[in-house]
Structure formats: C-alpha cells, structure tokens
Please model this.
Amino acid sequence: MSDRCPGVLRLHEAADGRLARVRLPGGRIDARGLRGVAAVARLGNGIIELTSRASLQVRGLPADAGERVAAILAAAGLFPSASHERVRNIVASPAAGRHPRSLAATDAVVAELDHRLCADPALSRLSGRFLFAVDDGAGLIGRRADVTLTAVGQNRFAVGEWELTAGEAIDAALALARAAKTAPGPEVADPGHLRLGTLRQSDGRAALTVLPRLARISPAQLDALAALSDDIRLSVRRTLTLVDLEPTVAAATGAALRQLDLIDDDRSGWSGLTACAGLGACARAEGDVRTLAAARAEQRTGGDPPEHFAACPRNCGRPPDAEVYQ
Model:
C-alpha cells in the first residue's frame, strides 16, 4: 500500500529540514536507544517530538543525513529491518501488565508480534499508517487501532470476535493485516490512559509517568533519561513512563524528572494540551500555534477537556478526543 509516512530511510521534507520517524513497538526504548535518538537529533536542529502513535521523530535534519541516521539507529538497536521499518506500528499500555487492573503481561506479545511482522516479506508492503494495539486488559491504550489484541486473562487475548491464546492472537492479527482487514477494539467515549505521576504497580514497585511540554524533548533530556532508567515507555498521549522502580528510589527519581522540566502532575495546564509543528516547521502552517498553546497552558487546568492547537485544517497530531483550535 502506498503512503507518505516518513521513516528512517524515507525522510520527510519539512519547512525546517528533513524529518525522521523512529518506530518503537509497544512504545519501548532503552538507554542505548535514547542516546541513539539524541545523537541523531544533534545532526539537525535538536528537536525531538513524541508522536500520537508512541514513536519519536527528529526534526531539522540535513538532506543528506539518511545514511548517517540509519547507521546511528542501527547501532542503537532501533533499526532491525530496512524493509519493514515503517510498518512496525504497535502501541501498548505503558504499564504493560503492571497496572492493578491488568489481566496479562504484554511485553512478550508485543516483541513476538514485531518479530513476526518483520519476518513476513508480504507485510513490508503494509501501509505505514496501519496500527496494531496490544491491550493488557486495563484499557489504557488511549486510542483505537486497526487491529487490537485485548487481554481477557493470562495468555488469552480477544481479536475481534475471537478469544485466542497469545500465539493464536498474533496469527490472527497478522492474517488480518495481510488481508488489509481491521479488528479494532471497542469504541469508547473517553479512551483510557495512564495518568501523570506515580502508579503503584501490582507487584508493589512504582511506575512514574511524565509529560514533555507540547511533546518536544531535547537531546540533553534524553541523555539524562538514559542515566535514570534502561526501560522507558512512550504512550499515544505523548507521555514517558519509567517502570519497575523500587519504592526507595521512586521519590528521588521523580525529583530528577521534575529537574528535567517534565510535568508529573495531572492538574497541570500542560496535561491534555497538544499542538502541531506550526510556523517554521511546516510549510502549511498558517499561525504560530505553539506560542498560543503555551499561553493557553497558563489558563487551563489538567481537568479541562483535551485541546489541540492546529496551524491548518489538516489537524496533524490531533488526539481523537481533543477539541481543535485554529
């Protein structure tokens, strides 16, 4: 299927230079990967964005940066397949089985789905917009996908009308993708997501979730995150979650995250607030929506409905439940 989605090898030409999008199945990235993305960003203007599909994209790259970007990301473990790199679109809850409402661990399911996706030559032609989701049963994915595997018990997942073992569910998901058919999860008025701050995991350890302002983060912040954790989870709400923290270190880690200017309070006006790339970054932009959104953050609270500031009618990056301002 033909589409214009950027990747690592196919860079998108934007107003501020080339853009590379790095897929992170399940939203997972380790310290080596964080440092690799930071190194790629230093080839360009230093802007890194969290996407609405729990991926990372790097802006402002030189036109001839493609080979260097691929080499850096391959060394960081983020580029396992040149043929399938744009189709590795798998989202999952950042908690991935650790939430008190979770019914099954999902990290192994995401990893196997990604492995088998990349091993199938036919699926290299899948649209770069086709999205898989693996829900641990807690309902914290945050958006609908084309094909959703929803945990209904240990090693049991629902795909559409079928209730299957994890392996069978992966078989079904890939078969649906080959046939370009969908099996989305149930429609919900308010897609669930992991709240900012501290979550007590079902095993007694802690997970910390923070938000970069308007989904942008710097190379220096990524390097600092890499020093704090070897397991970071991105969500479709453009958050970052550190999991499996011992209670004795959770408070100090939270303080370090705040020192990085990351928001950990759901009551903040930045919570639920998004904006597109805007003037200077997108040729279609008709206004400086990022400045408007930053001003709006001072006026709202995290309890307000989600709001998205868009610089043109395309509404790029709009969360499905957000009110749009142009």
